[in-house]
Amino acid sequence: MYKYIIRRILVFIPMLFILTIMVFGLAQLAPGDALTGQSLADPNVDPEVYEQQREALGLNDPIPVQYGRWISSVAQGDLGNSLVFNGRSVAELIESRFANTLYLGFFSLCITILVSIPIGIYSAKRPYSLLDYGATGFGFLGLAIPNFFFGLIAIYILSIKLGWFPAQGTMSAPGVTGFEAFIDRIHHMILPGITLGLAGTATYMRYMRSEVLDVLGSDYIRTARAKGMSDSSVLYKHTLRNALIPIITLMGFEIGVLLGGAVITEQVFQYPGLGTLFLSSVTNRDYPVVMAIAMILGILILIGNLLADIFYSIIDPRIRYD
Amino acid sequence: MNKEPVLDVEQLKTYFYLDDDKVARAVDNISFSIYPGETVALVGESGSGKSITALSVMQLINKPGRIVEGNILIDGEEIIQLNPKQMTKIRGNEIAMIFQEPMTALNPVYTIGNQITEILRKHKKMSKIDARDKAINLLKTVGIPRAEEIMKEYPHQLSGGMRQRVMIAMAISCEPKLLIADEPTTALDVTIQAQILDLMAEMKEKYHMALLLITHDVGVVSEYADRVMVMYGGQIVEHAQTKELLRHTKHPYTKGLLESLPNMDEDADRLGTIKGTVPPAYNFPAGCRFSARCPFVMEKCKQSNPELEEIETDHFVRCYLYENEGEQE
Question: What residue stretches are annotated with the ABC transporter domain (chain B) (predicted)?
């Protein structure tokens, strides 16, 4: 088991290397650089000046040289400086945003798990019941409605009309501390969290339902019943663990899906996370920031898959990596 | 036998209510009794209703199936009207069942030890330690070497034969009065089959159980069963002591089954077969259910279904060929 985890982490290294090439390559392929937008904006500045700037920033060097410079500083933990925000360091820009996005993603994942799995189990226990039909209907809606649209409707109804939840931001007053601040944060995360987790909740609900139904029809469940096990033991001991095996695998990918979805959801709720920073950096062609965020998202997805593999081996004894 | 039967099934009907309003009469008016210490074989082709009969006794019929009518008595106690919770006290405790597929019958994510001890803890209210000791003993009883280690292993680490031994250990753990074995050796290697059957016969003696052996292997029947019931189309068509049934086979279907066995003493080019297949349980012919495949079919057979008649002492047949024999004697 430990050997397996260490081996998986070693495999990370070449994957990270490929990731850096892809991130850098995509940034290079994108048209323009940080100075393009500004030279169009301000006709009074001599284009010659911009050219000098480019030369000074090393933007005219051959691409492999630029890559080598970038990768060696990234390897030393230096993500470089933003080209737009007066040269503030990328690390500084990302730091607080990263934490916000992680909170939101984690919160959303919790909502997804806490809602989808119990409803999925119940739907399978009572197929074709009212709740099952309701859940199916909700599932289709959840998958069909785009995130940003659901977010807008949620803001309009729940925050503007009813005033139950704040429409944007992470905190209401800066002065609060301790437990109150925590509650305030959660309060701010509820709408974006639900919006972000909507599609996932719908998907996992459907998966859970069909997995549980599948397992309930299997031979070993008949054996458990024939042994005289109670309904709750059959469902929660014998069925659940087997039904969760494929769900766990999907959850690993879900981390990537959540972070990708956060880009749009954060924008809708003006939530100061990585997503909003990513979008603004892309429009500003602030490539050091864009590359850093892309790298972070890539690493998180790799970690998500590793976690899924580890959980997988804990829950299913047939998969023990040794 | 004048003892009280362990299992008494009276006019049992288990129907499946399919879509498009079809009703599959999988078990249609079956009555039989099993006495303590007896091995009774239930024989028939796939789809004849053998397994559904067994699952009905266990009350493990899933939707859209339902026991429509009849009584099932375990040790004289009616179990049909028991609620699901009361039934869990009977299953595994008074009647146990072994299934056909040992490869899939054990839960893949729990250890063997966990799966055996849970039944002991449930029915015998044993402590964890007692249940563990008992489980190790049971594994040794069913001939599993390294029992202590096997306790910690998972089903996928064992062979099919070993898994079936584990199933037997689980089934006998609460010393049930009746053990139902639904084709327990069909999925196993031929070399293992005899071992498993011998083990079941041995356990039956040791724990004074009655055994309901479901099989389509007439060879198994002749070796292990005291009594045989032949099932066709959800009904019993012939029922007698094993020797009597094999020597004086009456029903054309039973004859067909026996003729389709290879016989070492005879020099035949081809094995006998029964033409056609079992009709689906929602579409039985109007008369005798075997009439479409029967070599001796008469006009009468197509009109109405014969009753199960006792034509000789303890030899019951459902066939018009023997209609008047019972009366003559």
Answer: 7-258
Q: What is the mean pLDDT of residues B192-202?
A: 92
Confidence (pLDDT) at B26: 92
Residue B21 lies in a domain: yes
Range with the poorest average pLDDT among A179-188, B21-30, B118-127, B307-316: A179-188
Nearest CA in chain B to A243: B109
Please indicate, yes or no, if residue B321 is contained in any of the structural domains.
no
In a domain, B205, yes or no: yes
pLDDT on residue A121 = 93
User: What would the two tokens of residue A57 be?
Assistant: 């920033």
Domain that holds residue B39: 7-109+154-242
Q: Is the pLDDT of residue A227 over 90?
A: yes
B57-69 confidence digits (pLDDT tens): 999 998 889 999 9
Give the integer Cα–Cα distance in Å for B158 and A195. Answer: 47
Domain harbouring B217, CATH code: 3.40.50.300
Residue B177 at interface with chain A, using a CB cutoff of 8 Å: no
The CA–CA distances, whole Å, from B17 to A107, A196, B55 equal 46, 44, 16
Is A225 in Cβ contact with B60 (below 8 Å)?
Answer: yes
Which tokens is A270 given? Answer: 């003006």
Residue B78 forms beta bridges with which residues? B73
**Contact predicate B23/B17, CB 8 Å:** yes
In chain A the domains, ranked by start, together with CATH numbers, are 2-75 (no CATH), 97-315 (1.10.3720.10)
A229 at the B interface (CB within 8 A)?
A: yes
B167 reaches A (C-beta below 8 A): yes
Put simply, whether A322 touches B (Cβ < 8 Å) is: no
Task: Kindly state the percentage of chain B with pLDDT values over 90.
Answer: 70
CB contact under 8 A, A223 and B101: no
The verdict on A31 touching B (C-beta cutoff 8 Å) is no
What's the pLDDT score for residue B136? 96
In order, the DSSP letters of A247-259 are HHHHHHHHHHHHH
Supply B296's token pair. Answer: 């001796």
**Which residues of chain A have a CB within 8 Å of the CB of B60?**
222, 225-226
